[in-house]
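#structure-requests
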Amino acid sequence: MISKAAVTALTVLLATLLIAGASGAVGTPDTNLDIPFLDRDEIGARWAGMGGACIAIVDDGAAAYYNPAGLGRIRRIEIGASFNRRSLDIESDWAGQANTSSVSSTRLEDLAVSYPFPTYRGSLVLTGSVFRSTSFDQYLDRQTSADLLDYHDVEQREVMLTAWSGAVAMQLSPNVFFGAEAHFYTGDLDFEDNLYPWGSCDPPGAAFSQNADLGGYGGSVGFIYVPHPLFSFGMVAKTPQRINVDGTEIYTVSDGSCDMYRQGIDYDIDIPYSLGFGFAVRPTDFNVSLDLVLTNWEELDYPGRVRDLDTGEFLFDATTDVRVGAEYAVPVVPVRVRAGYAYVPMALNVFDIEKNRRRLSFGAGTIVEEALTLDVAWQHTSFEREDGDASYSEKRTTDRLILSFAYRF
């Protein structure tokens, strides 16, 4: 994720570097065009175990994230939290040379407190929550040889983006629930990309770093309609999300001497609105749910590179996420087992997609004395893509272990 000014400067620097390779047989992969804030993971082990398919059935504090209308189904004071262990592995091939990189982290994922107010009819629930819906940390180390040069590129990114959320929900009628949520972001970003030859040669190199504070805001509104105890429908509209990046960029070129360029940055990333639709079937002891989430990424507003330099075409496509999940209550023992599948296509279209992003989930949970819920989930996500112009391909695999608990007073 690089600003427009830095892209221009680095283009010149990298072009100088690659021309030094005699024939330019290898290019620089376009992975720096990835905008990490476009991706979101599921929060809460119960719903993560179902692949995130819960727009029509969510009924705990996590509804502030998925569909705030689900908060209206809470009947007791509730406090809940989740922890997330995430590992990312990147297997890449750059001009015939294989490379492997990995990074892992463990963090508090979300914390929510919900308070239902006594009402004469229906329900009124207020929820305050904090969630970190995605870990954006990444480490990518790749090397290759081209003509007379050996190239070594190292990207490292550490991002902490926290959403502080407030939500309200109510039961408008026996069958209709409505909710609204608003949040603001805080956090910080540290990004570094070093591209330099290594081995016996000593030609130029290039480096870029970005250190910034993050801010921003967003919100959502949703409905849940339950025409029959066996069926439910849900809809959620997430407003455009704005993320502000305020900090410093430094880019350097080395050609025997070292020239460093430093500039302040302050720009916004405007993420388009999205619409989500859910349908669930809930026979006794069994839930099956299906979600569709539509986002038109062509409305993304970002001061970096969003169009092809030659054709002017937009680099991001509209996407439709498909999520399906199931939950089964085991007879006799208070245990529920879950499974889910999600197809979450990538918006960035500069790569040839060999295998688009898919996510497989499993989970289980129990309730202790009708008060304490304990849930666990595991998710496996992978995709494969290729940049033919740079003779580059990669496979990314993410594994997440989510642990959640909630206590109802």
